[in-house]
């Protein structure tokens, strides 16, 4: 949807756009993540709906100019609600040949391509594997190409500053950002303020970045390369106060909120691992909330310490990614056995083994559902969007505390590092979390159970008369002493399973978005929400008989899910794995659901889901 | 509102409670093999418990896996029998969340030095305020007799029929290298010494590492007989006493002298006097003397028992709580509404 706005003669025309998707790409040392996040902040504060997808290599600084060293940041901003960072960029800013080569394939014909012409020298072309210069060999003719000598222009703008040429070159991302600000009619103010805050102790750096940003902006304004600039009006979001938030930030805030709501201090044990480490960084800054963080010697120590803290009456939390879950599994089983509240966050990344640490995947579902010895059921919850992480983090703790059970919180790299506007909730509207510790010695038994929830009492050390022993050995029902009695083991195994299964009565039913019954139901979980929802919106607009169910609770599943699955001719389960939820649904409900799997380390595109659904609906 | 767990009672050393050993005996039947050294360690542990001034509910015993792991079941305190090698991690988290508790870790040579080696190192270097008692029987008992990380080289076991080819680890050397602030050794059958050592450990402020030489009469009987038996122990063991010259022997006629960088056993008399001997200093800031002692072993040397090292450093929970309190003093108690509504915000009306 574009609308031309009349402008005075000589001024560039302004096009009104509904939605724009930009991708910044350059060397991992080029500051592309910073550039992208600055544009995101500016668009967010302006009032657009936004969604972002940082895409960076695991190497901190891969060899300059090389293909593996390319770092990208895609963001979509819009005047109407959006759910994804966009399928294909409308604009690609490529800072060097390697960035062009690795990203140009994602561009639709006609997209704008802004390149730093200075970087297209023989050495860089060769590092990127270009035999001829793509800027001159005609291979980019299906795009609108803007060749700008960004390095040269930027260096000229910074002339006279006491800086090395290398330092000067490091600011060229701000030139590119300034140009994009002009192109999309954005204020430079938020970024200028940020520069001053960030480099307040280094005035020359402040000046350099200011000049670079302004030079880029002025370049757009004064040269006649761009005949048009674009306007994306603020989105009509629900009234309220907003901030831009990543999934990891929202998770950390949700965990702190849960601690406040429960009236128990948060203890966070963690070992650094991509892409979960930001949760540790964030929580270590919340000591004023009584949060104690512990950077453990390994993943096992991290969960062990969290279990110890929970045993002591705190909210013991640990977070990691897939390889860390593998290491924590034995301790997760211990938490199942001793029935203590614990939250284990898994920010999934592409695997197996070390896999692709900075790329997203949903392939830990079966690991967290079943990856432990013995029958050891654990509730599993999964946020759907970056902002949703806040609510689901609280939900994880609500379940853990009410049912005295470890809970898995299943995020992923896309949610963790992607961002969107978050309507800041009113604290009074947050769910209540009631916690009670056992104190009555006359009625206390370590494994007596609440008849409703089947939760055992939380009797913390320091409570007179409640001295008792727990541990990984099987315990007798009610009394809690070590027991090898065959019937007791069977009973305890059943009780642990029934306790978790019973949570289904305490979570909302699944609600289809779209038709109540009909041809096609698309079932998703986790970060595929945006792509599925957008595709289903499109299909519904096209008059198709389709619906979307997105599962927040993966164990137990909503109690009406089986019934719901039966109301559609076909059930499609798109996942960024090889069909893990699919396997669960087929096994549990005997439904002939079909999967749609892509494991490319990237989120689904809307068009991919849309196309697959169309094929199914057309009987293909 | 966030600190409602339990009132915190500072430790009051030297104010024993009016409790006896019996108050710390649980209702569970003790199930170690008859004649096992663990019985004595349990009895001495129960005996010293009233001395520390902690009521039963404020004492927690955490164990790993192995025969030693059973001990918490027999203590009428709070107890947590965890998983193999991980007891120090649970203890670290518990102590961090609950500085008001007295936390003991019960472990063995396999639990502490094989599967849990990493955790012992880090708990010690952080000076987590835990009392770690390592039962060292130089064998895997619960799994029925495989070589352990402290088994002597060449030892024939079920898993090493031609003899183990792995050099044994010296537990006290490891503890010292890991910066433990209290390092001691005692023997299961030397009940008085063991009791005194456990008491010293209990009163230590910070990580205490106590190696108890413990006899497994089923799978490694007599492992320490050569120097612990009543008839020979005075001549083959060195009882360390802070500030005292290192003298040993039934007749107290032998001592340890330093020759270059090496300890040397000397006979007193014939020109050698007490003044020539090393004087034990458990509080020495640098750990060289303690490390030297940790390497001494029969038959080259008498085996040292007692406290090798005892220095004061701030504990992990003190430092952690200190940071929390400092931040709170500076910023005040965190306000959730303000935290959520922070960063760059905008309003949609």
3D structure, described in words:
The complex is a heterodimer of chains A (620) and B (349). By secondary structure, chain A is of the alpha/beta class. Chain A folds into 4 domains: 2-232, Pyruvate-ferredoxin Oxidoreductase, domain 3, CATH 3.40.920.10; 243-429, Rossmann fold, CATH 3.40.50.970; 436-506, no CATH class; 513-617, Rossmann fold (3-Layer(aba) Sandwich), CATH 3.40.50.920. Helices cover 35% and strands 21% of the residues of chain A. In chain A, helix 1 (32-46) runs parallel beside helix 6, helix 9 (247-262) crosses helix 10 and helix 9 (247-262) packs parallel to helix 14. The longest helix of chain A is centred in the middle third of the chain and has 20 residues, at 203-222. By secondary structure, chain B is of the alpha/beta class. Chain B has a domain at 21-223 and 314-340: Thiamin diphosphate (ThDP)-binding fold, Pyr/PP domains (Rossmann fold, 3-Layer(aba) Sandwich), CATH 3.40.50.970. Helices cover 27% and strands 18% of the residues of chain B. Chain B has helices at residues 38-48, 87-97, 109-115, 117-125, 171-177, 191-203, 225-228, 233-236, 288-294, 316-331, 336-340; strands at residues 59-63, 78-81, 102-108, 130-136, 182-187, 208-213, 237-239, 247-248, 254-259, 262-267, 303-310, 345-348. In chain B, strands 2-1-3-4-6-5-11-7 form an 8-stranded mixed β-sheet, sandwiched between helices. A 3-stranded antiparallel β-sheet of chain B has the order 8-9-10. In chain B, helix 1 packs across helix 6 and helix 3 crosses helix 4 (117-125). The radius of gyration of chain B is 23 Å and the shape is globular. The relative contact order of chain B is 0.11. At the A-B interface, helix 1, strand 10, helix 9, helix 11 and helix 12 of A face strand 1, strand 2, helix 2, helix 4 and helix 10 of B. Strand 10 of chain A pairs antiparallel with strand 12 of chain B, so a sheet runs across the interface.
